[in-house]
Amino acid sequence: MNLFRLSKGFITEVHRLFALFWWESSDVEKRLHWGSWDKLCESKNDGGLGFCDLSLFNQAMLAKHCWRFIKWPNSLVVRVIKGRYFPTSDFLHATKCSSDSFVWKSFMWGRELIEAGSRWQIGNRSSTLIYEDRWIPRRHSFKVQSPRVLGRDAKVRLLLNTSAKEVEAILSIPTGSNLDDYLLWHFEKDGNYSLKSGYKLG
């Protein structure tokens, strides 16, 4: 489950078995279902029962591997995979191909979750692109929403002005660091990806 994307048919069948167990039903005797499976999978804070959605959990587990690809690019496993699938780029910019293995396609699906929940932490402002990269610390969109006034390849250090909606978020970014800009997971205080927050985001 943490190396392959499970098929929709398999997940549907497992969810069906969960539901039969929960409602104490069988193929012979049917009992009343008090809510849809999607509703049962919603978090308790949202009125559901917090049941695990296997598809989202599967993606969150694959995303954990993807986070390791990003954070430990010099490990032996990552170097082997890089040599096969993205020899001239980094993992975040690796491309998909129809001839790729099923495992690699599964990782590409997990990467979608990383892209949805990660953003760049600004350090020396030398590498993060203003309009293309995700770097503004706000919950729903990490990209600049203001009209473009600079070129596509402009870095954060060249940012001159922005809309009033983004000023507060941008001003909250610590400055003065000599470290390179680095990727962090927005939904954890320490900036590292966790299965729990990845599943919740999914």
Automatic annotation (TrEMBL):
Domain of life, source organism: Eukaryota
Stored PANTHER family: REVERSE TRANSCRIPTASE DOMAIN-CONTAINING PROTEIN, REVERSE TRANSCRIPTASE ZINC-BINDING DOMAIN-CONTAINING PROTEIN-RELATED-RELATED
Protein name: Reverse transcriptase
Organism field: Dipteronia dyeriana
